[in-house]
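Z., the sequence and structure:
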Amino acid sequence: MRIGILRQYKVSKISLTIDRGVYDVYADTSNIVRLVEGDKIQLKYYSGRVQVMKDGVDLILTTKLKFIPTTQNSVIQYNSIQPSFKSRYYQDGLEVNAASSNLALVNIVDIDNYLGGVIESEGGGGRHIEYYKVQALMSRTYALKNLKRHEKDGFQLCDGVHCQAYHNMLRHTPSINTAVKATTGMVMVDNRNSLITSYFSANCGGQTCDAAFVWNTSVPYVESFIDTFCIHTKQATWEKRVSKATWDNYLNKEFGLNQLPIGQSEERYNFVQDDRKAFYIHPSLGVPLRDLRQKFKLKSTYFSTILVGDEVVIKGRGFGHGVGLCQEGAMNMAKSGFTYEQIALFYFSNVSIIDYYRGQFFNQHEGE
């Protein structure tokens, strides 16, 4: 896998330390240095090139740099100098290019090592192994389906929520590695044997969401249904208050709700959402709940409102878009004894779990 890392920081200068293993460093096609455990090297963006320094000595000024591991389980520690951020660790190889005004770093990583880092970044530690297995299934399916998502940028996936969070290599939860290995190659496909889009969010609030409510497009394998596995978790409910004036100004300016007939104007504050909906109050008003969520930075679109004094009180459920797998629901299902296959098939309908690599082998054309 080619994963664009540290993109949000726009790194202009960075220090790399070999945490484990041995690396050969190539500038374009020339081997310039071998680095062993404990060795440090500094990289700096300089006039459209990568300046390479070791022990205070300039080694080379180049357009492209590659760190190729010569031993298994090799790891590099990343310590940024400009700008500053907390140290990160990534396994396997590294490619560095000079972008328009900063260094572009790409982690060239084995897919299982990548998935371990993703699952720990997304789900944290201390979870049941069946939850880690279903998250491995989800993340592998997503990765293989989206191999060309950042093709124009020179890599396959990024390390942020635009793709999948990948903030470090797997470091603290060995059972995640066990889960990844136990599900090696397993992916979810639809009834046409195509990889599905493996949607997930932190908490659905007790009812999963129709994809059309979020992205205007229905997805046949994700439906809205009651999910009681997540309703007693810390992210199951929330509350936020917005001043009546702020609420009015937004609805009037963006959606013309000041034109409501006399007698209906107070309806703008009293909204009950027992079942998930796509629009506020009524579809005829044309106020998408996703717009309100974005404007007022709400945790989800699954909320009701009431006017209390000069404030609109927003009482909500869940965290995230609510489409597909509910992570906290899946965690509780795992603790209740469900297998990862049962959890996956609870949240996704009309799908199958197959071995991706076995399928690729048997789908090869003759002579390929």
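The longest strand covers residues 13-20. The mean pLDDT is 93.

Let me know what you think.
H.
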